[in-house]
Design goal:
Blueprint lengths: L6 H6 L9 E5 L4 E2 L8 E2 L6 E3 L7 E5 H9 L12 H16 L2 H11 L1
Parallel strand pairs: 1-5
Antiparallel strand pairs: 2-3, 4-5
Length: 114
């Protein structure tokens, strides 16, 4: 019987620490200086952005109004999905997942599912 390793084991076996991502939610009028953007991110930016070089293990930046739209089921492209915590979480997870598939983290995820 094959035992599935814990996700954290896939990181530590490769000499990496498990990623702990900081989440920044921009309220209307707020900005965030990211090393992944030429100019500060604003509360008007439409997408969730993950930057692996911000903070200790990366930062996920989202607009409060966009998260509310996702939570209420009114976000563009999310009609038909269940509203509530799932939709807001889905928006954050999607923003993060677009950047996770490459590099060390992607290799660790692949190893976890083998």
């Amino acid at each position: 019987m094959r035992r599935r390793a814990r996700a954290a084991d896939a990181f530590t076996q490769r000499g990496l620490s498990a990623p702990l991502v900081e989440v920044v939610v921009l309220q209307p009028g707020e900005t965030f200086a990211s090393t992944c953007a030429d100019a500060p991110l604003t509360s008007d930016d439409p997408a969730v952005l993950y930057c692996p070089t911000d903070g200790a293990s990366g930062t996920l930046v989202a607009r409060a109004e966009a998260m509310l739209a996702a939570w209420t089921g009114l976000a563009p492209g999310m009609q038909g999905l269940p509203a509530g915590d799932f939709s807001a979480g889905f928006a954050l997870a999607h923003g993060f997942a677009r950047h996770v598939a490459a590099g060390d983290i992607g290799e660790c995820i692949d190893a976890y599912w083998r």
